[in-house]
Records
---
Amino acid sequence: MTQNQILCVTYFDEVIGPSTLYCNVDLTENTDTPDLNRILEFNDEEGTFIFAYRKFQTVNHIFYVDSKIARGGKELMMITYMIKTAIFKDEIVDVFQYLDSKAPVLEEFALEIKNLNDLPSTLHLKKSALSGKYVIDLANEELKKKFLGVFQKYFQKLAPKYRLETPIKDKRLIKKIFIIGAPRVGKTTFLKNIELIQFLNIKRNDLPSRIFEVIIENLEILKYDENVSEFECKEFENLENCINFSQGFIILFNLTDRNSIIQTKEIFKIVDNTRLDLETDLAPILIIGNKFHDKEDIEQDFINKTFEINELRELGVKVKYFSINILKEDEKVMEAMRWLIRKLL
Ligand SMILES: Nc1nc2c(ncn2[C@@H]2O[C@H](COP(=O)(O)OP(=O)(O)OP(=O)(O)O)[C@@H](O)[C@H]2O)c(=O)[nH]1
Ligand SMILES: [Mg+2]
């Protein structure tokens, strides 16, 4: 159970770099969790931010503690609370909202840490990155006891109220955003690139940007196998289940290639027909024409007509078209993703 929820306090030591004061779980043995040291290495601005990493979603609070020993008179510290996505019963947005609601608890925790008088000097006791696991083990007994008491108190405050041991959510019940498109249009490039953008943007603070970080976990390429005319749904047996568990679609094609547009439309048509058979409403659709450079873009009228964008809108489907060079135009990729995320909230 405790492996599903992790609370860590880290700090930045001027000599040996990022170090761990204390964690309830040994992260060095856990490959699914983010490298907190890397996060701390790249961030030094006071505040709270959410960061998603594979199976764990994290909320982090960076703060400074006054110190007579530190250069500049302040110690840089960070509290991180992380939670395994699978323990949430509802959709991915709930994870974000849960973590976001815990920001004030992290701030309170930071205040109590600031009031632990002997703490700053303890932070300087560690002389090598290799010696020992947690720096708190080097503290005097009184400080150690006080710190661990405060730590436990906040760990309880952060924990979800319902029992975590009971039904861990089936991976397949998490709703997905599917990426659909003809071969070689940039589907993999798109996915890889937004993972990178999220890392570079971890401290943006508007709501869709922060949800964006959480939502990436749920993006999946829905690969269409032309030879057998079938979709390969990774965690579902068939296309019907895929559609039942979709919360959005991203349709991608090569904007310089008329064939790519038509082929993408044909693939999407299969999805749409299946959806009609299931009598479910179509989730929001983000349409992206990937601008491969050096070639002329196909006119937008052709795209509107091929994807029947106006008709879809009249049926009440949330749909929007963007033309983007997904390899280079990060801002536009973010803008398009933000549009989609707003439609999901
Ligand atoms: N110039 C340019 N090249 C791109 C762009 N996007 C993707 N590519 C290149 O196009 C090729 C295909 O991109 P992928 O991301 O592999 O496309 P895919 O849709 O995943 O392809 P399949 O999985 O094979 O169907 C790669 O060589 C990419 O580097 C782009 O915006 N501009
Ligand atoms: Mg690919």
---
Amino acid sequence: MPLVAQRSWVYPADNSGRFRTARQYFGWFLVLFFVSVPWIRIAGLPAALIDIPGRRLVLVGTIFTPHDTWALALLLLTAALGLFLFTSVMGRVWCGWACPQTVWLEFVYRPVERLFEGPAHRKRRRDRGDHDATWWAIKIGKWSSFVVLTALTTGVFMSWFVGGPQLLRGEIGASGLFVGGMLFILFLLDAVWFREQLCHFACPYARFQGVLMDANSLIVAYDAHRGEPRAKGKSRDEESGDCIECNRCVDVCPSGIDIREGDQLQCIACAGCVDACNDVMVRIGKPQNLIRYTTKRDAPAQQGESRPVFTRRTGVYVAFFCIVAAGLVIGLATRNEVAVQIARITDGQQYR
Ligand code: SF4
Ligand code: SF4
């Protein structure tokens, strides 16, 4: 038995539908947000800057120094509790809609890949055939574009740590250059090769989501009661369920899974399969939502029960979130704005 499993490449087909459109607009908004924030200045300071060498964090015109560790701790705690609360209610919606890895892969790299490779089925056929001159020409064109995109992506990431204007002026120092170079290699490897495997094997958030979610959390699920027994073509009869085994839901899945096999760790709740199946249902004149956003509690029967929005667990998260967030707000409102620090200025050092 081989020690290393063979990489199984995923070729998600193009897809359209209301969730896809909404994700696309939201994805573009997030890209714009990540790119623009390091360039925005509020009260003469960057809107956001994580200045590690300078040991300060700048957020919305406020500077946090090591003296404000309590504020940073409360901020991180608030963010963590917010994430727990969000996951408990919305499941893995973050992964499919807002995670930078998904946003960049789906809305930055994948469209460029489509330009060079064409639709997914053509790419799959080409990859499984001979690696001739055409194959190499297409790959070299695509990989060269990926190198440029990754350089820009690395620049966007670094600008959160050194500032947009500073990055443009090349003021990142030798250590910044080294970190940027390492990130560039990692980002490029992810875009060209690792891709959805990051969610499957490396992301810690994906690992502990199972603990945060319960039967009332939002998931994408297939209505087996309605869809089974599935049958296609001439094998269909009055007993057949609504699933016509077209496999469209599997073809479009960026994680390469079959949602009809039940809730799976690899599902990022992107709703690609929901759009795909709804399109099929419209074409065959059946009701939509054979696959849909639902909950584990509803999923087995999908009887359309209304799900409780606030369970005891979400109530506890909300309570802790409010307490910590209130502590943070009160602490910041009463914070002493004056801090005096005496330090020797060395040659070439300047205050950004
Ligand atoms: S897209 Fe819908 S009908 Fe087609 S295989 Fe998937 S669940 Fe069945
Ligand atoms: S199963 Fe559906 S919702 Fe889950 S990752 Fe695949 S396409 Fe997205």
